[in-house]
Amino acid sequence: HLNFDVSDFYMQPAYYNLGVVYSEMMQYETALNCYEKAAVERPMYAEAYCNMGVIYKNRGDLESAIACYERCLTVSPNFEIAKNNMAIALTDLGTKVKLEGDINQGVVYYKKALFYNWHYADAMYNLGVAYGEMLKFDMVIEKACNNLGVIYKDRDNLDKAVECYQASLMALSIKPNFSQSLNNLGVVYTVQGKMDAAASMIEKAIVANPTYAEAYNNLGPFLSFLHSFCAKQNPPRVLYRDAGNISLAIEAYEQCLKIDPDSRNAGQNRLLAMNYINEGTDDKLYEAHRDWGRRFMRLFSQYKSWDNIKDPERPLVIGYVSPDYFTHSVSYFIEAPLIYHDYAKYKVVVYSAVVKEDAKTNRFRDRVLKHGGTWRDVYGIEEKKVSSMVREDKIDILVELTGHTANNKLGMMACRPAPIQVTWIGYPNTTGLPTIDYRISDSLADPPDTKQKHVEEIVRLPESFLCYSPSPEAGLVSPTPALSNGFVTFGSFNNLAKITPKVLQVWAKILCAVPNSRLIVKCKPFCCDSVRQQFLATLEKLGLESLRVDLLPLILLNHDHMQAYSLMDISLDTFPYAGTTTTCESLYMGVPCVTMGGSVHAYNVGVSLLKTVGLSNLVAKNEDEYVQLALQLASDIPALANLRMKLRDLMLKSPLCDGSKFIQGLESTYRDMWRRYCKGDVPSLKRMEMEQQDLPSQQTVPEDTTKVNGLGDVPISPIKTNGFNFNPGPGTSSPSNTSDGEEKRAAFKAE
């Protein structure tokens, strides 16, 4: 399978050609080194990755071979030789794990092999044998179609996924209501923005199987997306009851938990949803996180000692774990540490759980490797194994960047593989895990006198806890549209789940007070007519005519999404869950944003961003002041136009975009953590000791990690593909992942 033509020898880079020669001489280790050097010189070198895969395959290292083929197909998706080689390696791996006793995982690999080569006879034959050994003859056809549908969904071929799920439903007349396929159709329709069809499919899945826990889990994100904005002539009992809002979403998650108390998806999605309506008036949200963390931690064994040398001033190894190293909203805040760290003193090891890599993933990887760091792809690897990798890498400080959002690795954090563990960026609240020492924030998002409780100890960076790296595809700032329109346009590109009824009330008050003003709101669900109509009807009831409102659906290309800010004069932030990426994008495109502070971190992110940029005058203390600030901006068009043309430069010169200065504060914070550890001051160990003392009085949880198959346990398996979200990420390379303010992603599960 070596892809090399001798006639092209002198046209190919030297290292690649040397690799081919050494391969033919059977000096495979030297050949691998040559291919690796070729790939470093030319990161898009698909042939080099392919030939590396061949060597690993022939040596019996199937996992490494598959990893090489994946790299190859990332840069050259239609490389037929690599696709065929991938199918062979996956089939061999399926047979290997089946012989080791894991027939279900064997079926998974056979199915994935058929994705790469539909006609590969060995994969088909072995799949049939496996089903025969499982004595599941009546499920062969429908399961095959359903599982292939999951594979296509993961590969972003949503139309093909729909065909497979529909074929699964039609395959056997004895089971026309196969609940898994109904559920999975609902998942795909939701990703496509077809909310009515999604609602219908998930409802049918529940009717077909009333104890189908994950279907209830999938209702939750759907409802939190829609709030009370969807209506039908005959509303389904579960989806569209009168109280159809975040509270109903939480109810759906709790229904799932009643059926399956160990559902990790539902447990974490419930916590995420509660942030949308939490104003910090009580400790209920903290207690929910704390209780989840206690229960979850007991599903894993914790490391209690580490070999890391306790020298307070030695170079440190920092591990960063995230599924969002691709074109995704979180990636704009991950970039600075990867680029600006002093690798001689703070070596970076990246644990990437990206479902599908894109050009940004490759750029991140290349920069980390170029600086002398380490990049490990851990998608599909069980969390306990990842924790072992962390131990082997001798990570001093392990930083998770996801929290309770999709594809997280909190199970790995529960094992406590590193001496110091930190949570940062990806989640606006405590994780609840006693094994995490610190939560990184700042004095504006989490003031020293905050009443909000956290399981972790809060450490505050000198300035903002975020460092924004703007998209190079953004384009130029355009003049404020009010100059040519003759009226002011307010807008928001935030996640629809953040636009609560109270937010709409305040927005309507602003619009009604500014004659002829307009409102533009953009997010994916607006491609669904029923969502649009109900959203407009809600505003009509608040006194704002629908003719003054423009609703935009998903915009695929990142450049076009950023240029859509040219349609608005003033950006309106959401509350109590403020925008993050959307606020930064708005400011970068010259659009001032009005925000409001509150008593919890999620409320105050906008406060931190705006004050860091120097726009304290746009931060309100309450709803009345929020309205007045918006009205003041709208009353002076020349001043608004002048601010617009200065805002990008103001932002770029602020600490929010100063990567080198930001990293100094971050590294100093890491050093302080390490010095404390060297003195025996470890917050999580103290906390875990307290948990152990309380353990006898609490309900025990069996040590059965096989039930923990939710957000963080993301097997390669197409049968159970977890962490599937509303926004196209993280299973897609489309820049549209950032184009609707989808900053927090619930786990939407296809089975």
TrEMBL record:
Residues 694-703 have a biased composition (Polar residues). InterPro entries: Glycosyltr_41/O-GlcNAc_trsf, OGT/SEC/SPY_C, TPR-like_helical_dom_sf, TPR_rpt. PROSITE patterns: TPR, TPR_REGION. Belongs to the glycosyltransferase 41 family. O-GlcNAc transferase subfamily. Residues 303-466, 483-664 form the O-GlcNAc transferase C-terminal domain. Pathway: Protein modification; protein glycosylation. SUPFAM superfamilies: TPR-like. Its EC number is 2.4.1.255. Keywords: Glycosyltransferase, Repeat, TPR repeat, Transferase. It is an enzyme of class 2 (transferase). TPR repeats lie at residues 12-45, 46-79, 179-212. Transmembrane segments: none annotated. Residues 691-751 are annotated as: Disordered. It comes from Penstemon davidsonii. Residues 727-739 have a biased composition (Low complexity). Residues 741-751 have a biased composition (Basic and acidic residues). This is protein O-GlcNAc transferase.
